[in-house]
Each structure stands twice: as C-alpha cells, then as structure tokens.
Fold this sequence. Notes:
Shape: elongated
Strand content: 35-45%
Largest sheet: 6 strands, mixed
Oligomer: single chain
Amino acid sequence: MINVKDEVYAALCTVTENVTDHYPNTWEQDVTIQYMEEDNKVADETTCGESKSYVRYRIDIWSIKNTSPIAVSVDAAISPLGLKRIQCMDVEDPSGMKHKQMRYEGIIDVSSRRVYHAIGKD
C-alpha cells in the first residue's frame, strides 16, 4: 500500500488554503475544496509483496461564483503528481453553491513511486 494523501493535500493547498478531507462544515470562504481517497488497492504483486498500488482520488470544488477556473488550477496542481484526470463534471448541489467534481487515478510503483496509467481505459 502506498500513501500519497499528503502530496495530494499539499498540491491542493497551492490552489486555496480552504482544503479539507471531510465534508465542509463552514462555507465562510468563496472556494472550498474537499478531497477523498476513494480507492487504494493492490495493482501488482510479486512473491515479495505488493509492487504497484492503484489509487483514485475524488476532488469536490464548491464556489459561490464559478468552479471552472478553480478546476483548471486544481488540474495544474494535481497533474504533476502523475495522477490522470478521469472525470470532471458539474454537480447539482442543494446548498445553492456551484459544485464541480473531479476524479484522478494512477498506478504507483511502491518502490520508485513512478506513476503508470491503465492502457485502453476510458
């Protein structure tokens, strides 16, 4: 198993300081980003143990005005980690806030931390 949650958090903090790994309980800021590790499982295993881990992160963006420029900034912050954006969509939110959801994934070598992507996957 590999832990890249700290790297994801640090990257998102370059976009805004209002970053959390749980549902926001305050909407004082114009922009709020929530990130969740949705999956972290064995992608490849040898007799020595796990050699590659598959990880997927969901990133939710809330804004009073517009989420699109923030999503572009999030993508610019997360992409250098090697994670691939596999989804970006607007989500209707009962709070009245603008809400965009993004997903990133990668297959990470636990020794070298090199990031791979599944071939032929949508």
